[in-house]
Design a protein that fits this description.
heterodimer, A: 73 residues, 2 helices, B: 402 residues, mainly beta, Porin, 16-stranded antiparallel beta barrel, two-stranded antiparallel sheet, 18 strands, 56% strand
Amino acid sequence: MKPRLHAALAVLTFFALSSCRTVEFWEMERFADSVMMLDEDPAEIHFHQKVFNSMEGSAGGNGTEAGGGCGCY
Amino acid sequence: MLLGARRWSRLLIAWIAASTSPAIAQTVESEGPRDPVVPLESRDDVAGTGSLRYQLGFYNHGDNGDGNPFLDEALTVIEPILVFDYNVSDRFGYTTTVSYDHVTSASIDRLSNFPDQSGASGDNYIGADVALRYEANERLELGTHFGFSTEYDYSSLSLGVAATHAPLNTNAKVSYSLDAFFDTLDIIRFDGTEDEGSDNRTSVSGTVNWYQVWSPTLHGELGATLALQSGFLETPYNAVVIEDASLPPNPNLDNMARGREITEELPDSRARGAFYGRLRGSLGEGRAWELNGRLYSDSWSVNSLTLEPRYYRTLIPDQLDLRLRYRLYVQSASKYFEESFIVEDEFRTQDSDLGDYNTHTLGFKLTWKKSQRHWLDLAFDYAIRSDGLDHIFGAVGWTWKF
């Protein structure tokens, strides 16, 4: 478990340090490109969660999918 | 050297794995379409605007004797889903999601052989969820959602709250969410008996998600979820076969093995943790890459790693976008899983989804923007699972923005 904890701390530190340089608003033009949008379609997310819940023993540990579905087909 | 080369490589691998994906997806699922780039203040939540999305999903896997050898695990699911999102005012909006699943599975067929009931997990599922969001100020959004789903032997009530904060001058958004599910199950066993009545299951999960713009061409997110479940966590109709060479071939088993079936037994609690993240970078106008991943571990000793590189490309400017992806999923078996039992362990399962396997998935998605307000999309994935339970899934969708 310890190496995993260290890895998690390293990633968090990396993220924290990344925020030291502020990207200005006018530099964000590239993010308006449709291929750069991080948001995914909610219907697609819903469907994929169903698929993975029914096929993977570790599905459902993220966010709202801790339970709320038998998935036992 | 503060750290050895091996440790550095381990950290690097962990960091790549953390560049996950199921990511903000979950926390943003109920919040509707928005500009992910600039925190809160610049998105297009204008009173009277919204969107309507219809999607038809399809999922299938066959079973030619792989997976659990005693059980036919073939399954087909068809799922229409409707998502309506509306901004009542510039600050307040809601999203309504309604879905229906038509399930054809061997487990249902199998139980229909018994006279007492018609199905196991049911062949019809209906779910609905309403999510409300309120922008308290330019840097703070609050949300809540509640939902209900039901099928033949199962119903679930869900509640959740969320807050998203955009700290000043950080190019970041931090989201917190807390969700709870209250499920009720009718216990229908593998032989059709229902004398155990019904039972409950409660799940509570907390998630922290951190979105960050790293550079003018790179952004990503990182998050962690801790979920606690208690109550009846088995699949009621799952059986475990105690093999016994002295018995005659069992006609209820898919492979006619010599043995007797007993109920699956699993603990009444499960703690689950997931650490996820993803990175999206621009390769120039109309081209982008993504790497997402997830590390998961739980108290049943199921551990998994997911890595998913993606490539995005605009094929025809303002009209046609392509997404390609490869998904690697590696899972270790639960400590309660065995392929073969000869004695009755206190906790036991032969559910192949709790076994040791990996999956390689290849998929694409095409999005055709008919106009600024209408678009159609088509997605298809093919998954190869190491225990032979290969599957396909895909969806067609239509979105209208108004």
